[in-house]
């Protein structure tokens, strides 16, 4: 057992005289993977499937409904590939493509035929309906379907024959001019990942046969569809998703970020086209299903968004004094396009400003009523391409197969309103849990970085949100190999890692100050956090929520402003205002190990190891 000092700081372990070293992590310390597993247990996840469901999944895997050769088109000779993250465990979509006459491209989007293995009303179906979605946390997943289906029978693995539902699209110009839908039998030739496809597109790696020409044709079709959506005024928002690497002991060895590259956009636009085609058919034939609805924004929200961006010196289109919801939809697309062009010339600000755009929009949800998708500027949209991990997609599979006479029963219209509300709620719950899991992994990673580089290490950052109590700051750059570790730096592409902030936390107003930093532009103050507050200041948040103004000094903090963050080591026992965050039990040997959150400032503190660092708590979105 490692000893501790009177204030909780880990002591050095002494051997022979003059031979002393600091042991890290302390013995018996909880790992990040253990803490995430504890979060899952607290939220009712991570308990797997009971024996009856596992047996039913195994039986369904061996004997799916329907005959392979009688009701399915045999597409096994068609060159096919999948593109997914390197860490993906299930592959529910595959793509084939070829150039046809008159300059058109024919694309086949193959989606795993989950309905062939999960009959409606079965025990597997009831459990999938209850879960409604898979939950993905760092280093862990809670699947909607048992692994025998999600990772095997319904996963489009390379060189394996799989049952699929195929959407056939003819892309002419920037539009889809013909569609066809049927059940199929396919065989994927190659399992590609986003990084590899980006290297191929950049000319750094050759494509192989037989999927070289299909990949090029799919790239051409996706680029044309993207141009069409931009012409219609769809929102332009590039989100970043964190990626965590774990070592053999369950500790976070690095953090990266998955940015939207051309490989991501290829799959995204082809899947959107398939979703729109399915929804259009179901709406035309009036088959009950669950649509993915994103209602038009309120005009007042768009007016406020334009005023917020204007206060940050971002160009915006002219905003009329009075306008309708349809005009608000058009203005939202125009604002996002101008913002994307503005951010292309800046090294920071994307997180803060795109958060403003997202908060001005309404939240998407599932509904049996087709109200369109404002973000995509699509009059008819549903989720169809991920039936392994989303129950609404399975509902749309059954509706589509009923519409084309492929042996399914139409969903009961009277039950869809309740089902839409339930799946929307479960989706929001899953997003909350996933964000909390990301926060825990970030905290463990930051702890390791502070130990290696010093407990008073300073980080560059940017303000991503403001409230009257302080500033939410994203800090630390994933492209820094010292902060990430060699494993993360070796796996993340340069485009995905550039200027990506990996930690987030709230700096309370009592810690804010303004001073000139070395190298700052002449005549311009830069927001910073001194090691000790220089003087008492009264900070006021402006009406638009984009600026904190110092009443005495005249200094300001704005969204997207640069900041220097100093994380200071402080034993938790010296913090008086603690409130319980979650009980994270690693094992029966350490039942008392608990995570806490300090009320002010918001930090994450591990009571067993006695450290404290800036938190990864997220700004409200």
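-> sequence recovered:
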């Amino acid at each position: 057992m490692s000893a501790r000092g009177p204030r909780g700081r880990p002591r050095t372990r002494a051997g022979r005289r003059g031979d002393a070293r600091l042991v890290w992590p302390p013995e018996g310390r909880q790992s990040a993977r253990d803490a995430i597993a504890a979060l899952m247990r607290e939220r009712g996840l991570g308990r797997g499937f009971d024996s009856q469901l596992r047996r039913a999944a195994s039986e369904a895997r061996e004997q799916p409904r329907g005959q392979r050769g009688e009701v399915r088109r045999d597409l096994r000779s068609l060159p096919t590939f999948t593109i997914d993250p390197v860490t993906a465990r299930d592959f529910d979509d595959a793509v084939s493509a070829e150039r046809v006459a008159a300059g058109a491209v024919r694309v086949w989007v193959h989606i795993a035929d989950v309905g062939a293995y999960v009959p409606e009303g079965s025990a597997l179906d009831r459990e999938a309906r209850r879960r409604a979605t898979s939950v993905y946390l760092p280093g862990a997943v809670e699947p909607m379907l048992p692994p025998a289906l999600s990772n095997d029978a319904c996963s489009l693995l390379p060189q394996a024959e799989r049952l699929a539902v195929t959407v056939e699209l003819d892309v002419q110009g920037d539009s889809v001019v013909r569609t066809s839908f049927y059940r199929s039998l396919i065989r994927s030739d190659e399992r590609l990942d986003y990084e590899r496809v980006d290297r191929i597109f950049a000319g750094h790696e050759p494509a192989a046969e037989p999927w070289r020409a299909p990949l090029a044709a799919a790239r051409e079709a996706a680029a044309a569809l993207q141009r069409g959506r931009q012409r219609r005024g769809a929102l332009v928002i590039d989100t970043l998703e964190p990626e965590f690497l774990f070592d053999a002991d369950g500790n976070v060895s690095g953090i990266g970020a998955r940015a939207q590259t051309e490989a991501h956009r290829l799959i995204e636009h082809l899947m959107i086209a398939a979703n729109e085609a399915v929804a259009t058919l179901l709406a035309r034939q009036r088959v009950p299903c669950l649509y993915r609805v994103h209602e038009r924004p309120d005009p007042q929200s768009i007016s406020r968004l334009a005023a917020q961006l204007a206060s940050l010196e971002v160009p915006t289109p002219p905003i009329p004094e009075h306008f309708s919801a349809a005009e608000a939809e058009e203005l939202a697309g125009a604002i996002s396009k101008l913002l994307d062009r503005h951010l292309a010339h800046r090294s920071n600000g994307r997180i803060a400003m795109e958060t403003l755009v997202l908060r001005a929009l309404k939240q998407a949800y599932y509904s049996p009523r087709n109200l369109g998708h404002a973000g995509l500027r699509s009059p008819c949209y549903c989720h169809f391409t991920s039936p392994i991990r989303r129950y609404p997609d399975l509902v749309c599979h059954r509706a589509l197969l009923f519409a084309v006479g492929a042996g399914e029963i139409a969903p009961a219209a009277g039950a869809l309103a309740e089902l839409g509300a339930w799946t929307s709620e479960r989706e929001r719950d899953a997003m909350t849990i996933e964000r909390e899991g990301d926060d825990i992994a970030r905290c463990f990673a930051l702890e390791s970085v502070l130990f290696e580089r010093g407990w008073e290490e300073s980080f560059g950052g940017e303000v991503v949100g403001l409230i009257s109590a302080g500033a939410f700051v994203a800090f630390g750059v994933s492209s820094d190999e010292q902060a990430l570790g060699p494993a993360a730096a070796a796996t993340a592409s340069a485009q995905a890692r550039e200027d990506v902030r990996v930690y987030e936390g709230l700096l309370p107003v009592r810690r804010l100050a303004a001073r000139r930093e070395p190298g700052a532009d002449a005549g311009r103050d830069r927001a910073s956090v001194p090691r000790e507050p220089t003087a008492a200041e009264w900070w006021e948040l402006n009406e638009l929520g984009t600026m904190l103004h110092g009443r005495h000094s005249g200094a300001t903090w704005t969204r997207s402003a640069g900041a220097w963050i100093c994380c200071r080591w402080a034993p938790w026992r010296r913090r008086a205002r603690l409130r319980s965050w979650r009980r994270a039990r690693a094992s029966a040997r350490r039942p008392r190990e608990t995570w806490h959150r300090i009320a002010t400032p918001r930090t994450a503190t591990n009571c067993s190891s006695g450290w404290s660092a800036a938190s990864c708590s997220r700004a409200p979105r």
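The radius of gyration is 26 Å.
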